[in-house]
Design goal:
The structure holds 2 protein chains of 2 kinds. Chain A has helices spanning 8-11, 18-21, 25-46, 48-57, 67-73, 79-88, 123-139, 159-170, 182-192, 201-214, 237-247, 359-366, 404-419, and strands spanning 103-108, 118-122, 147-150, 173-176, 196-198, 225-228, 250-253, 255-257, 261-264, 272-274, 280-285, 298-305, 316-325, 337-339, 344-345, 350-352, 355-357, 372-383, 386-395, 424-428, 443-445. By secondary structure, chain A is α/β, with parallel strands linked by helices. Classes of the chains: A alpha/beta, B mainly alpha.
């Protein structure tokens, strides 16, 4: 059989691009400065929104001479700034750097935080979005001879389109799971024998549930890796374990933000996700004070993309809560590690009697209780004493309805023991909560209105 | 090959490709050469160098 077009030397490499993945911190910082200076000059020259913003802040691109200058002088932008620009002058507004002729794709966000935002992606950007996935694929041993099954509908949500661009970059095989239901997808996996499954973590579990119904033994299928994005879960230990056990495969995740890039592929040691530092810069701030927090402290991720050429994103508030560590990782990468992936959202922050409660922490604990399924919802409401949380979670099919009360008590006790706040739990019958193919809606905030 | 030598060679190739594309032979060949330029840009970038932000605009559109 003829080999795929990569040399033996390359195939044996632990890294997709060792030069940047293991670059010493000092040199990474120097590279960041050069790319930030260039991106700011590009945006100032070509994007009216940034020119206005920077003129108002009183600096010119040439004033950014150090990373400290960047942190101090450059104002943050938020999704709302881009949405507003698009609404004022649709479809693109004055936030774009490239004319429409250069837009290869036009995506939009799900609108989960309000109005959907348009995301133009240029041809060259699409290659870089894909490249970020390849870093993750390569690190865990996926090679061009592997084949990918995409349990994805190929709609206007960028999600796994960028993973597809990654598979093209890698030179592996793509099997599309578009336009068919879960049962058909499972049958296609049996027929086509892909080695990698790409989907959201929630959907991997929904597929496993369907497979059980159909009597399909997933660990006996060809899938060796599952790769996830779109929502936390791939780095929530109990959820990851549930996926790995159901599929008999290793599960990884990539942290991506549609309008910014597939910025952080998974750590092969499953410690979290690494920021692809040749393509993006990040600082972590206190969401209330905007103060940059120290290494290892939880804060909001603020990112700058070097590869979004059509609609640049510079110092962009993601509202994702992360714990960033810059010490070299056991996997050999020097790239910043977001330990445990995305921990929650700053706009989903729940504070009960002074204690921050992260939805992913609740998810992780639910996975520790035997008899509880991975399907859950978190409802937050304003009560007389502050925020109140109620968790709805499905029981596993083998738990009889008569056992729900005992199960509820066990879940409540564990949540209280670990989080130290009272969280009400409702046990639901199997199949009662909705299933999702893309972003699962887990968090319901009833505090406003 | 030394990284610096590789970068220098890639930059030379980019210059050659752009020169060839100044007088396009056909839309098909012009597009292929533009993509070749794009991939050379990407390789230089992957070697930790800074080129213009995007080769899609051509060097003149992104002065350094």
């Amino acid at each position: 059989m003829e080999a795929r077009p990569l040399s033996r030397t390359s195939l044996a490499s632990r890294y997709w691009n060792e030069h940047t993945e293991t670059m010493p911190r000092e040199r990474l910082q120097a590279l960041h400065l050069k790319r930030l200076q260039q991106m700011i000059a590009y945006a100032y020259r070509r994007v009216p929104l940034y020119r206005r913003l920077y003129d108002r802040a009183g600096f010119k691109p040439e004033d950014i001479r150090s990373l400290e200058d960047f942190d101090r002088l450059v104002p943050v932008i938020d999704k709302q700034d881009l949405v507003q620009a698009q609404q004022t002058n649709p479809p693109w507004g004055d936030a774009v750097a490239l004319p429409e002729d250069f837009h290869l794709f036009r995506f939009q966000t799900s609108g989960s935080t309000g109005v959907p935002m348009a995301i133009p992606v240029s041809y060259y950007s699409s290659h870089h979005y894909g490249e970020q996935w390849v870093y993750g694929f390569w690190a865990v041993g996926i090679r061009p001879h592997d084949s990918f099954y995409f349990a994805f509908t190929w709609g206007t949500f960028i999600g796994f389109w960028s993973a597809y661009w990654g598979v093209r970059r890698l030179g592996a095989t793509v099997h599309s799971g578009g336009g068919v239901n879960t049962e058909m997808r499972l049958k296609q996996i049996l027929d086509l024998k892909p080695t990698v499954l790409v989907c959201t973590p929630t959907y991997a579990l929904a597929m496993a549930e369907k497979a059980r119904e159909l009597g399909i033994d997933l660990p006996k299928t060809s899938i060796r890796w599952t790769y996830h994005a779109g929502e936390p879960g791939g780095n929530v230990p109990t959820t990851r374990r549930a996926i790995e056990e159901a599929w008999g495969a290793k599960a990884y995740e990539l942290y991506g933000i549609g309008e910014v890039g597939a910025i952080a592929p998974g750590c092969p040691h499953q410690l979290g996700v690494h920021l692809a530092e040749d393509q993006a810069y990040a600082t972590v701030i206190d969401p209330d004070t905007s103060r940059v927090v120290g290494d290892g402290e939880v804060g909001e991720n603020v990112v700058t993309s070097y590869i979004q050429f059509a609609q640049p994103v510079i110092k962009y508030r993601t509202h994702d809560l992360v714990r960033a560590v810059r010490t070299p990782c056991a996997c050999g990468r020097t790239w910043l590690l977001y330990e445990g992936g995305v921990l929650g959202r700053s706009d989903h922050m729940i504070i009960i009697k002074g204690t921050n409660v992260y939805p992913t922490a609740v998810e992780a604990l639910l996975g520790e209780v035997a008899g509880v399924s991975p399907h859950y919802e978190i409802h937050v409401a304003r009560g007389p004493g502050g925020d109140e949380i109620r968790v709805k979670v499905e029981a596993q099919p083998e738990v009889a309805a008569g056992g729900y009360d005992e199960l509820r008590r066990r879940v409540e006790a564990l949540l209280y023991e670990r989080i130290m706040v009272r969280i009400g739990v409702e046990i639901q019958a199997p199949g009662h909560l909705p299933r999702y193919e893309l972003k699962a809606k887990r968090f319901f905030d009833h505090r406003r209105g | 090959m030394e990284r610096e030598v590789l970068v220098r060679e890639l930059r030379r190739l980019r210059a050659d490709v752009r020169r060839l594309n100044q007088d396009p032979w056909s839309p098909a060949v012009e597009r292929s050469l533009a993509l070749a330029d794009m991939y050379f840009h990407m390789a230089i970038w992957q070697l930790g160098e800074v080129e213009e932000v995007t080769p899609e605009l051509g060097p003149a559109a992104d002065p350094r």
